[in-house]
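Support request, please re-run this one:
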Amino acid sequence: MADVTLSNGREITFDLYQMTINEWERLLEPDQPRAEERATLAKVSGLTVEEIGALPYPDYHRLTNAFVARCRDPLADAPD
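Re-run finished. Output below.
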């Protein structure tokens, strides 16, 4: 099941196994460069950095909100 559907109908399911704990902790640092943030988001979403940068603002907001929600409970649908 998709974590978020963009306005163009593309369904995104985050794969948090693509993100390391170092990348996660870096996302929480206020001085992280935007390029690094987008690179991490691209890794887990299956989008490219360019695709993320080209998203309409509402879709970017949907994407990042869904990502944060998914990160709050990373084991919600993990196999035992």
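Residues 4-56 form one domain. The chain has a mean pLDDT of 93.
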